[in-house]
Write a structure and sequence with these properties.
Blueprint: H1 2-41, E1 44-45, E2 52-56, E3 61-63, E4 67-68, E5 75-79, E6 84-88, E7 91-92, E8 99-102, E9 111-114, E10 123-129, E11 135-144, E12 148-150, E13 155-159, E14 164-170, E15 177-181, E16 184-185, E17 195-201, E18 206-212, E19 221-227, E20 233-240, H2 258-270, H3 275-290
Length: about 290
């Protein structure tokens, strides 16, 4: 009898321990699910935009910040040098009206816009989300007065086989100037050959001249002058297989209206008398009309 009581007691204790283990497993599983859900729902930065931004004095610049899973949290922009909160959600907290936040309803973008940027605006700006702990995304802004400028037209049309000549002026003494064709740097040692670059320092800055002889159709495209420490400038080059289009001709004179020419010739043909005088008169009229 006592043996059976002991056995039953052991079974009872085992059952109780089994139930406790089940309860613990359930609680731990629920906690894990809760933690996982909280992790999934935590805000994070969709960091696909440049962390270093360069602009020119008096231009408008936009610093990008994309926040996923924002929920009911607040997104702010802070200027690092003086810890000044510039914006909070859609509201601006600065008397400087050049600053504003760009946010479309239901979007994840909370971008900081600075109009008429000045060199004093250079520095680090932080996009912040008030999570616990707080998360932030730092963007470095450089406002420079240095910029490149393409000399002449922003579009260049040349005939195949001729020489492409592109000139770029920089308003500072740039340590170096590179040229790009599309997204690739111009290779002066390429098998193509016939490529030369002249760069010189002037009183007002730096000048650079790129020349490509024996222009081919593959030389068409966007060319970008990229000075060190300055904003770049671009020009479009079209290599034409034949004559220039009429719109691009350098001569300002246009074709003579054919109908008027025919009328004048008819007058000349039906007036045999004083043919020389009439011819001279008609020639003068044609010249005036076709000028």
């Amino acid at each position: 009898m006592e043996t059976m009581t002991v056995v039953n007691l052991v079974k009872l204790v085992s059952f109780v321990l089994y139930v406790i283990c089940l309860v613990c497993d359930t609680v731990l599983a629920a906690a894990a699910i809760t933690n996982a859900a909280e992790i999934i729902e935590q805000p994070f930065f969709d960091d696909i935009s440049p962390r270093n931004v360069t602009t020119v004095v008096d231009d408008t610049v936009v610093l990008k910040c994309r926040v996923k899973n924002k929920g009911n949290r607040t997104v702010s922009w802070m200027r690092k040098r003086d810890l000044h909160i510039l914006t909070s959600n859609i509201y601006t907290y600065t008397g400087d009206q050049r600053f504003d936040v760009i946010h479309a309803p239901e979007s994840d973008d909370w971008d900081l816009k600075i109009e008429y940027a000045q060199q004093r605006d250079s520095g680090i700006y932080e996009c912040q989300v008030n999570t616990e702990p707080k998360i932030n995304l730092a963007v470095y802004l450089e406002v420079t007065a240095a910029r490149a400028r393409i000399m002449g037209s922003q579009e260049v049309h040349v005939k195949r086989g001729s020489t492409i000549s592109l000139s770029c002026a920089v308003n500072v003494h740039a340590s170096s100037v590179s040229w790009f064709h599309g997204s690739s740097v111009v290779d002066f040692d390429s098998a193509r050959g016939g490529i030369s670059l002249e760069t010189e320092k002037t009183e007002s800055g730096t000048s650079s001249r790129l020349m490509l002889t024996r222009a081919a159709l593959r030389d068409s495209g966007n060319y970008t002058c990229v000075p060190a420490g300055a904003v770049s400038a671009s020009v479009l080059v079209y290599v034409l297989n034949g004559e220039h289009p009429a719109a691009m001709q350098t001569s300002s004179s246009g074709p003579c209206p054919s109908n008027i020419a025919l009328i004048l010739l008819c007058i000349l043909s039906i007036c045999p008398c004083h043919r020389t005088t009439i011819s001279q008169t008609m020639s003068c009229i044609l010249t005036l009309i076709c000028r």
